[in-house]
Amino acid sequence: RMISRAGFRGLVLSPSTALRQALEGAGIRTGVIIPGIDERIFRPVSRGEKSALRVKYGLPPDGYIVLHVGHIKESRNIGTFLGYRDWGPDILPLVKAGYVDPAWKKRLSDAGIAVMDRYIDDVHELYQASDIYLFPVRSSTGALDLPLSVIEAAACGLPVVTTRFGSLPGLIEESECFRYFDDQSEIPGLIARIRDNPAAAGRDGGAFSWDSVLGRYLEPAIGDAVSSFQRKPG
Predict the structure, then answer these.
(1) What pTM value is reported for the model?
(2) Closest CA to 62 of 23, 40, 44, 89
(3) Vertex 41: Cα angle to 69 and 211 (nearest 5)
(4) Cβ density class 44-64: b for 16+ within 10 Å, e for less
(5) Which terminal residue of the chain has fewer beta carbons within 10 Å of its beta carbon, N or C?
């Protein structure tokens, strides 16, 4: 409101729907932009590279790894992983944690879910070692409005199964390699569908590179803002 009263005539770009709505309510023009990634790091790998990464991190060579990266806490809806035995006979859920709620870590570990809470320099390698990314978060306090881990997973060529969380539905369309679910009972079918369809893997990570993001969002926004500024008197 202070910025608006000061006569701010610029444009604010954000991936957050809530922030954009608040700014628009204060009379400030906004636009959308998503986070970009370094495509030299977050990229798909070959089957041979994937196998080597599994050896490096002590992961089973033949299991189907369902990955989640994020805090182990109630607001992440992490209990979804407890139903993994219904997802397929060779499923291995892997949760790479930042903050860890000890009670939830014990529940996950006791259920046979692999929990990795040590620091890893190259977290992108866990995406590359996995087969699919699951994002079950529903609470707005569980993650950023546009979860970076979802973008990183997709950039590494992983199919993504996710709730309709935050800004995701408005920014990323559903496709063979990017599936939304409303109820966790849908997860087994979505995983099976992705596994049975080779086209569901190997998304072009370049779509999330900074070059792509700037060309798709920033350059048009700047052009629009300049045109709008030039049309105003004074």
Answers:
(1) 0.85
(2) 89
(3) 105
(4) bbeeeebeebbeeeebeeebb
(5) C
